[in-house]
Amino acid sequence: MALSNRPRTVPRYGTAAGTGTLAAFLLVAVGGSPMYVDWAQRGTDPTGAGGWFLRLLAWPSWRWQADEGVFATNLRAILLLVLAAALLYLLPGPQVDRVTSSGSQFLSGWGAYALAGGLSALLATLLGPHGSLFAAFQAASTGVTYGFFAGWIVGLASLGGRA
Question: Which parts of the chain span the membrane according to its record (predicted)?
Fold first, then answer.
């Protein structure tokens, strides 16, 4: 006979979308910070793979000083976070699998971040000053490149949560 009817404690882990969103936030907050962007531009070799990757991590840069491009730059970083969070929650892969697999969580997080990178660049360029469709397409290709090469970090973070 049990002395109490306490419910079993369930381990409290974050959801795959929640941990992926946290990773996306950290990528934008740290990699896009003015201090990191300045260091990446001055302290890395753009001709090597490592320097190229470290510079790519600075793509979702955000700035405090007010100049002509600050609206589009900051909008891109904000849209990247919002779209990444929304796509991580909306992509149905891990939620509808009969057997929750870590592979689907990883690919879902990675794909969501790549798509969020392209969409955020496209929308920020179109809504920014001097936005043209051609410039938006070019920016979207850069955003998808960033999302592809940095999205595996979000994909790995999505592995840490339950579906």
Answer: 12-37, 69-90, 110-128, 134-159
Sign of the Cα pseudo-torsion (53, 54, 59, 60, in order): positive
Residue 13 is predicted with a pLDDT of 54
Identify the three-state secondary structure at position 70: helix
Using an 8 Å Cβ cutoff, are 105 and 94 in contact? yes
pLDDT along the chain (163 residues), means of 10: 54 73 95 95 93 94 79 90 94 56 83 96 90 93 96 88 60
pLDDT given at position 96: 52
Residue 76 lies in a domain: yes
| Residues ≥6 apart with Cβ < 8 Å to 88 | 16, 17, 20, 21, 24, 108, 109, 112, 154, 158
- Which two structure tokens, joined as six digits, stand for 26? 């950290």
Count of domains forming the chain: 1
Task: Establish how many alpha carbons lie within 13 A of residue 84's alpha carbon, considering only the half-sphere containing its beta carbon.
Answer: 38
